[in-house]
Amino acid sequence: MPQLLKDVLSRHFIHAVVWAKPNVNAFFIASVAFLGTLLPASAAQFVTLGTGGVTGVYYPTGGSICRLVNKNRKEHGIRCSVESTGGSVFNLNAIRDGDLDMGVVQSDWQFHAFHGTNLFADAGPNDQLRSLFSIYPEPFTVVARADAGIASFDDLKGKRVNVGNPGSGQRATLEVLMEAKGWTMDDFSLVSELKSGAQSKALCTGQIDAMVFAVGHPSGSVKEATTSCDSVLVDVSGPLVDKLIEENEYYRKAIIPAGLYSGSNTDTKTFGVGATLVSTTAVPEEVIYQIVKAVFESFDDFKRLHPAFANLTKKEMVRDGLSAPLHPGARRYFLEAGLL
Ligand code: GLU
Protein backbone atom coordinates (compact mmCIF):
# COMPACT_ATOMS: atom_id res chain seq x y z
CA MET A 1 0.00 0.00 0.00
CA PRO A 2 1.44 3.44 -0.86
CA GLN A 3 2.78 5.32 2.16
CA LEU A 4 0.43 8.26 1.59
CA LEU A 5 -2.62 6.04 1.62
CA LYS A 6 -1.36 4.31 4.78
CA ASP A 7 -0.91 7.69 6.44
CA VAL A 8 -4.39 8.83 5.46
CA LEU A 9 -5.91 5.58 6.66
CA SER A 10 -4.09 5.48 9.97
CA ARG A 11 -4.94 9.12 10.67
CA HIS A 12 -8.55 8.48 9.85
CA PHE A 13 -8.68 5.31 11.90
CA ILE A 14 -7.33 7.14 14.91
CA HIS A 15 -10.11 9.70 14.58
CA ALA A 16 -12.64 6.99 14.03
CA VAL A 17 -11.41 5.11 17.09
CA VAL A 18 -11.72 8.17 19.29
CA TRP A 19 -15.12 8.96 17.90
CA ALA A 20 -16.32 5.35 18.06
CA LYS A 21 -14.88 4.43 21.42
CA PRO A 22 -18.11 3.51 23.14
CA ASN A 23 -19.37 1.46 20.21
CA VAL A 24 -17.26 -0.97 18.19
CA ASN A 25 -20.00 -1.38 15.56
CA ALA A 26 -20.04 2.34 14.91
CA PHE A 27 -16.28 2.23 14.42
CA PHE A 28 -16.65 -0.53 11.89
CA ILE A 29 -19.42 1.30 9.98
CA ALA A 30 -17.47 4.57 9.94
CA SER A 31 -14.36 2.85 8.59
CA VAL A 32 -16.23 1.06 5.85
CA ALA A 33 -18.01 4.29 4.86
CA PHE A 34 -14.67 6.08 4.70
CA LEU A 35 -13.10 3.40 2.52
CA GLY A 36 -16.16 3.53 0.27
CA THR A 37 -15.54 7.19 -0.46
CA LEU A 38 -11.78 6.77 -0.82
CA LEU A 39 -11.52 3.89 -3.28
CA PRO A 40 -13.52 5.15 -6.27
CA ALA A 41 -11.86 8.56 -5.97
CA SER A 42 -8.38 7.06 -6.10
CA ALA A 43 -9.32 4.91 -9.10
CA ALA A 44 -10.96 7.73 -11.10
CA GLN A 45 -9.17 9.37 -13.98
CA PHE A 46 -10.26 12.90 -14.83
CA VAL A 47 -9.74 14.23 -18.34
CA THR A 48 -10.40 17.75 -19.58
CA LEU A 49 -11.45 18.54 -23.14
CA GLY A 50 -10.92 22.08 -24.49
CA THR A 51 -13.44 23.35 -27.03
CA GLY A 52 -14.39 26.90 -28.14
CA GLY A 53 -17.09 29.47 -27.46
CA VAL A 54 -20.47 28.20 -26.29
CA THR A 55 -22.32 29.22 -29.48
CA GLY A 56 -19.83 27.41 -31.73
CA VAL A 57 -19.91 23.72 -32.63
CA TYR A 58 -16.75 22.68 -30.69
CA TYR A 59 -18.49 23.19 -27.37
CA PRO A 60 -21.47 20.91 -28.07
CA THR A 61 -19.07 18.47 -29.79
CA GLY A 62 -16.96 18.21 -26.64
CA GLY A 63 -20.18 17.84 -24.65
CA SER A 64 -21.31 14.96 -26.87
CA ILE A 65 -17.97 13.15 -26.61
CA CYS A 66 -17.80 13.53 -22.82
CA ARG A 67 -21.41 12.47 -22.46
CA LEU A 68 -20.70 9.17 -24.24
CA VAL A 69 -17.53 8.63 -22.20
CA ASN A 70 -19.22 9.40 -18.88
CA LYS A 71 -22.10 7.06 -19.65
CA ASN A 72 -19.76 4.12 -18.99
CA ARG A 73 -17.88 5.76 -16.14
CA LYS A 74 -18.60 2.89 -13.76
CA GLU A 75 -16.83 0.45 -16.07
CA HIS A 76 -13.68 2.41 -16.95
CA GLY A 77 -13.42 5.02 -14.15
CA ILE A 78 -12.81 7.92 -16.57
CA ARG A 79 -14.60 11.21 -16.03
CA CYS A 80 -14.52 13.61 -18.94
CA SER A 81 -15.26 17.31 -18.53
CA VAL A 82 -15.61 20.02 -21.16
CA GLU A 83 -14.16 23.50 -21.02
CA SER A 84 -15.24 26.45 -23.11
CA THR A 85 -12.06 28.11 -24.41
CA GLY A 86 -10.78 30.68 -26.91
CA GLY A 87 -10.52 27.99 -29.64
CA SER A 88 -7.98 25.91 -31.58
CA VAL A 89 -4.74 27.79 -30.97
CA PHE A 90 -5.55 28.25 -27.29
CA ASN A 91 -6.32 24.50 -27.00
CA LEU A 92 -3.06 23.47 -28.69
CA ASN A 93 -1.02 25.71 -26.40
CA ALA A 94 -2.88 24.47 -23.32
CA ILE A 95 -2.31 20.83 -24.33
CA ARG A 96 1.38 21.51 -24.81
CA ASP A 97 1.53 23.15 -21.36
CA GLY A 98 -0.32 20.23 -19.73
CA ASP A 99 -3.33 22.41 -18.83
CA LEU A 100 -5.74 20.39 -21.00
CA ASP A 101 -5.69 16.66 -21.78
CA MET A 102 -7.55 16.89 -25.08
CA GLY A 103 -8.89 19.53 -27.42
CA VAL A 104 -10.96 20.06 -30.53
CA VAL A 105 -8.73 21.88 -33.01
CA GLN A 106 -8.69 22.85 -36.68
CA SER A 107 -6.65 20.53 -38.91
CA ASP A 108 -4.45 23.44 -40.15
CA TRP A 109 -3.40 24.40 -36.62
CA GLN A 110 -2.94 20.77 -35.64
CA PHE A 111 -0.47 20.55 -38.54
CA HIS A 112 1.41 23.71 -37.50
CA ALA A 113 1.56 22.75 -33.80
CA PHE A 114 3.00 19.33 -34.62
CA HIS A 115 5.54 20.70 -37.09
CA GLY A 116 6.38 23.90 -35.19
CA THR A 117 5.48 26.13 -38.11
CA ASN A 118 3.60 29.41 -38.58
CA LEU A 119 2.18 30.55 -35.19
CA PHE A 120 4.07 27.72 -33.47
CA ALA A 121 7.48 28.56 -34.93
CA ASP A 122 8.71 30.07 -31.65
CA ALA A 123 7.43 27.19 -29.52
CA GLY A 124 8.91 24.62 -31.92
CA PRO A 125 7.40 21.26 -32.92
CA ASN A 126 5.18 19.58 -30.33
CA ASP A 127 6.24 16.01 -30.97
CA GLN A 128 4.02 14.78 -28.14
CA LEU A 129 0.88 15.93 -29.90
CA ARG A 130 -1.32 13.00 -30.96
CA SER A 131 -4.50 12.83 -32.98
CA LEU A 132 -7.54 10.77 -32.04
CA PHE A 133 -9.89 11.28 -34.98
CA SER A 134 -11.23 13.97 -37.26
CA ILE A 135 -14.82 15.05 -36.84
CA TYR A 136 -16.60 17.31 -39.37
CA PRO A 137 -15.62 19.91 -42.02
CA GLU A 138 -15.28 23.54 -40.97
CA PRO A 139 -15.76 25.96 -43.85
CA PHE A 140 -14.14 29.36 -43.42
CA THR A 141 -17.31 31.42 -43.08
CA VAL A 142 -17.82 35.14 -43.60
CA VAL A 143 -21.18 36.64 -42.64
CA ALA A 144 -21.91 40.25 -43.62
CA ARG A 145 -24.78 42.61 -42.96
CA ALA A 146 -26.98 42.66 -46.07
CA ASP A 147 -26.76 46.48 -46.17
CA ALA A 148 -22.94 46.61 -46.00
CA GLY A 149 -22.27 46.12 -49.72
CA ILE A 150 -20.14 43.01 -49.20
CA ALA A 151 -20.57 40.40 -51.93
CA SER A 152 -17.19 38.67 -51.73
CA PHE A 153 -14.20 38.43 -49.41
CA ASP A 154 -12.37 41.22 -51.26
CA ASP A 155 -15.22 43.63 -50.40
CA LEU A 156 -14.15 43.43 -46.74
CA LYS A 157 -11.47 46.03 -47.53
CA GLY A 158 -12.36 49.28 -45.79
CA LYS A 159 -15.09 47.64 -43.71
CA ARG A 160 -15.57 47.09 -39.97
CA VAL A 161 -14.64 43.47 -39.37
CA ASN A 162 -14.55 41.21 -36.35
CA VAL A 163 -11.34 39.27 -36.92
CA GLY A 164 -11.88 37.08 -33.85
CA ASN A 165 -10.06 36.67 -30.56
CA PRO A 166 -6.38 35.73 -30.56
CA GLY A 167 -6.32 32.00 -29.80
CA SER A 168 -9.21 31.23 -32.11
CA GLY A 169 -8.68 29.17 -35.23
CA GLN A 170 -10.62 31.61 -37.42
CA ARG A 171 -8.40 34.53 -36.42
CA ALA A 172 -5.29 32.54 -37.26
CA THR A 173 -6.66 31.22 -40.57
CA LEU A 174 -7.91 34.69 -41.53
CA GLU A 175 -4.38 36.01 -41.00
CA VAL A 176 -3.02 33.35 -43.37
CA LEU A 177 -5.51 34.41 -46.02
CA MET A 178 -4.77 38.10 -45.46
CA GLU A 179 -1.07 37.45 -45.80
CA ALA A 180 -1.66 35.63 -49.07
CA LYS A 181 -3.58 38.67 -50.29
CA GLY A 182 -0.96 41.11 -48.99
CA TRP A 183 -3.44 42.71 -46.57
CA THR A 184 -2.81 43.99 -43.07
CA MET A 185 -5.28 44.89 -40.32
CA ASP A 186 -5.06 48.48 -41.61
CA ASP A 187 -7.01 47.39 -44.66
CA PHE A 188 -10.12 47.32 -42.47
CA SER A 189 -11.68 50.59 -41.24
CA LEU A 190 -12.26 49.00 -37.84
CA VAL A 191 -10.96 45.78 -36.35
CA SER A 192 -12.64 44.09 -33.40
CA GLU A 193 -11.43 41.00 -31.58
CA LEU A 194 -14.66 39.71 -30.13
CA LYS A 195 -14.98 36.04 -29.24
CA SER A 196 -17.26 33.94 -31.41
CA GLY A 197 -20.06 34.10 -28.84
CA ALA A 198 -20.33 37.89 -29.08
CA GLN A 199 -19.95 38.53 -32.78
CA SER A 200 -23.48 37.82 -34.05
CA LYS A 201 -24.89 40.40 -31.67
CA ALA A 202 -22.26 42.95 -32.71
CA LEU A 203 -23.21 42.32 -36.35
CA CYS A 204 -26.91 42.72 -35.75
CA THR A 205 -26.60 45.81 -33.57
CA GLY A 206 -24.56 47.44 -36.35
CA GLN A 207 -21.22 47.64 -34.51
CA ILE A 208 -19.49 45.66 -37.27
CA ASP A 209 -20.15 44.98 -40.97
CA ALA A 210 -18.85 41.43 -41.08
CA MET A 211 -17.80 38.52 -38.92
CA VAL A 212 -15.52 35.59 -39.63
CA PHE A 213 -15.87 32.08 -38.22
CA ALA A 214 -14.27 28.76 -39.15
CA VAL A 215 -17.08 26.53 -37.98
CA GLY A 216 -19.15 23.42 -38.67
CA HIS A 217 -22.64 23.91 -40.06
CA PRO A 218 -25.27 24.51 -39.01
CA SER A 219 -23.81 26.61 -36.22
CA GLY A 220 -25.73 28.43 -33.50
CA SER A 221 -23.68 31.57 -33.99
CA VAL A 222 -24.32 31.84 -37.75
CA LYS A 223 -27.98 31.00 -37.19
CA GLU A 224 -28.21 33.84 -34.69
CA ALA A 225 -26.56 36.27 -37.13
CA THR A 226 -28.86 35.30 -40.01
CA THR A 227 -32.11 35.27 -38.07
CA SER A 228 -31.71 38.30 -35.79
CA CYS A 229 -31.02 40.68 -38.71
CA ASP A 230 -30.63 40.73 -42.49
CA SER A 231 -27.26 39.21 -43.20
CA VAL A 232 -25.70 37.06 -45.89
CA LEU A 233 -22.97 34.44 -46.28
CA VAL A 234 -20.15 35.64 -48.52
CA ASP A 235 -17.99 33.66 -51.00
CA VAL A 236 -14.31 33.25 -50.18
CA SER A 237 -12.94 31.99 -53.50
CA GLY A 238 -10.72 32.89 -56.45
CA PRO A 239 -7.18 32.07 -57.63
CA LEU A 240 -5.45 32.91 -54.33
CA VAL A 241 -7.74 30.65 -52.36
CA ASP A 242 -7.26 27.91 -54.97
CA LYS A 243 -3.50 28.29 -54.57
CA LEU A 244 -3.75 27.96 -50.77
CA ILE A 245 -5.77 24.77 -51.21
CA GLU A 246 -3.31 23.40 -53.74
CA GLU A 247 -0.26 24.11 -51.61
CA ASN A 248 -1.52 22.99 -48.21
CA GLU A 249 -2.80 19.49 -47.50
CA TYR A 250 -5.05 20.66 -44.66
CA TYR A 251 -7.20 22.98 -46.81
CA ARG A 252 -10.12 21.82 -48.94
CA LYS A 253 -12.68 23.42 -51.19
CA ALA A 254 -15.88 23.84 -49.19
CA ILE A 255 -19.51 24.65 -49.91
CA ILE A 256 -22.06 25.92 -47.42
CA PRO A 257 -25.28 24.64 -48.96
CA ALA A 258 -28.04 26.99 -50.11
CA GLY A 259 -30.96 27.25 -47.74
CA LEU A 260 -29.12 26.24 -44.59
CA TYR A 261 -29.47 29.77 -43.23
CA SER A 262 -32.11 32.35 -43.99
CA GLY A 263 -30.93 34.98 -46.48
CA SER A 264 -28.57 32.56 -48.27
CA ASN A 265 -30.45 30.97 -51.12
CA THR A 266 -27.46 29.96 -53.20
CA ASP A 267 -24.45 27.80 -52.31
CA THR A 268 -21.61 29.72 -50.65
CA LYS A 269 -18.19 28.82 -52.09
CA THR A 270 -15.26 28.93 -49.73
CA PHE A 271 -12.37 26.83 -48.44
CA GLY A 272 -12.26 24.83 -45.27
CA VAL A 273 -10.40 22.84 -42.68
CA GLY A 274 -11.47 19.93 -40.50
CA ALA A 275 -12.39 19.87 -36.84
CA THR A 276 -10.19 17.23 -35.22
CA LEU A 277 -9.73 15.80 -31.74
CA VAL A 278 -6.19 15.77 -30.35
CA SER A 279 -4.40 14.80 -27.16
CA THR A 280 -0.85 14.13 -26.04
CA THR A 281 1.39 11.19 -25.24
CA ALA A 282 1.05 12.26 -21.58
CA VAL A 283 -2.48 10.78 -21.51
CA PRO A 284 -2.33 6.98 -20.99
CA GLU A 285 -3.14 4.63 -23.85
CA GLU A 286 -5.99 2.95 -21.95
CA VAL A 287 -7.73 6.29 -21.29
CA ILE A 288 -7.69 7.34 -24.95
CA TYR A 289 -8.69 3.82 -26.00
CA GLN A 290 -11.81 4.06 -23.83
CA ILE A 291 -12.66 7.56 -25.08
CA VAL A 292 -12.38 6.63 -28.76
CA LYS A 293 -14.27 3.42 -28.12
CA ALA A 294 -17.09 5.28 -26.35
CA VAL A 295 -17.65 7.48 -29.43
CA PHE A 296 -17.21 4.82 -32.12
CA GLU A 297 -19.25 2.12 -30.38
CA SER A 298 -22.18 4.54 -30.02
CA PHE A 299 -21.70 6.06 -33.44
CA ASP A 300 -25.39 6.35 -34.36
CA ASP A 301 -26.13 8.06 -31.04
CA PHE A 302 -23.15 10.36 -31.57
CA LYS A 303 -24.36 11.37 -35.06
CA ARG A 304 -27.72 12.36 -33.62
CA LEU A 305 -26.19 14.69 -31.03
CA HIS A 306 -25.54 17.59 -33.45
CA PRO A 307 -26.78 18.27 -37.00
CA ALA A 308 -23.16 18.98 -38.08
CA PHE A 309 -22.45 15.26 -37.43
CA ALA A 310 -25.22 13.97 -39.71
CA ASN A 311 -22.97 12.88 -42.61
CA LEU A 312 -20.00 11.53 -40.68
CA THR A 313 -18.49 8.20 -41.62
CA LYS A 314 -16.08 6.26 -39.43
CA LYS A 315 -13.67 5.71 -42.33
CA GLU A 316 -13.30 9.43 -43.02
CA MET A 317 -12.90 10.24 -39.35
CA VAL A 318 -9.94 7.89 -39.09
CA ARG A 319 -8.30 9.11 -42.28
CA ASP A 320 -8.79 12.85 -42.89
CA GLY A 321 -6.89 15.85 -41.58
CA LEU A 322 -4.71 14.07 -39.04
CA SER A 323 -1.18 15.50 -39.26
CA ALA A 324 -0.02 14.36 -35.84
CA PRO A 325 0.47 10.59 -35.42
CA LEU A 326 -2.46 8.64 -34.00
CA HIS A 327 -2.42 8.26 -30.23
CA PRO A 328 -1.58 4.62 -29.41
CA GLY A 329 -4.94 4.24 -27.62
CA ALA A 330 -6.81 5.41 -30.74
CA ARG A 331 -4.69 3.17 -32.98
CA ARG A 332 -5.45 0.17 -30.74
CA TYR A 333 -9.18 0.77 -30.99
CA PHE A 334 -9.14 1.38 -34.76
CA LEU A 335 -7.12 -1.79 -35.37
CA GLU A 336 -9.47 -3.77 -33.17
CA ALA A 337 -12.50 -2.34 -34.98
CA GLY A 338 -10.99 -3.05 -38.43
CA LEU A 339 -10.84 0.65 -39.31
CA LEU A 340 -7.10 0.72 -40.00
N1 GLU B 1 -12.79 26.72 -35.46
C1 GLU B 1 -12.89 27.58 -34.32
C2 GLU B 1 -11.54 27.64 -33.63
O1 GLU B 1 -10.70 26.87 -33.93
C3 GLU B 1 -13.93 27.19 -33.32
C4 GLU B 1 -15.23 26.76 -33.90
C5 GLU B 1 -16.27 26.37 -32.89
O2 GLU B 1 -16.26 26.89 -31.78
O3 GLU B 1 -17.09 25.54 -33.27
O4 GLU B 1 -11.31 28.43 -32.77
Give an overview of the whole structure.
- The protein is of the alpha/beta class and 340 residues long.
- It has 14 helices and ten strands.
- Helix 3 packs across helix 11.
- Strands 1, 2, 3, 4, 5, 6, 7, 8, 9 and 10 form a ten-stranded mixed β-sheet that branches.
- Helix content is 44%, strand content 20%.
- The site of glutamic acid has 15 residues, from helix 7.
- Glutamic acid binds next to helix 7.
Entry keywords:
340 residues, disordered N terminus, single chain, binds glutamic acid, 10 strands, 14 helices, alpha/beta, 10-stranded mixed sheet
What value does the average pLDDT take? Answer: 90
Indicate the proportion of strand residues.
15-25%
Helix content: 40-55%
- Count up the helices: 14
Helix and strand string, N-terminal first?
Answer: HHEHHEHEHEEHEHEHEHEEHHHH
> Can you tell me the overall shape?
globular
Q: Describe the biggest sheet?
A: 10 strands, mixed
Structural class: alpha/beta
Strand count: 10
Ions and ligands = glutamic acid
Low-confidence stretches: 1-42
State the separation between the terminal residues, measured CA to CA. Answer: 41 Å
Estimated radius of gyration: 24 Å
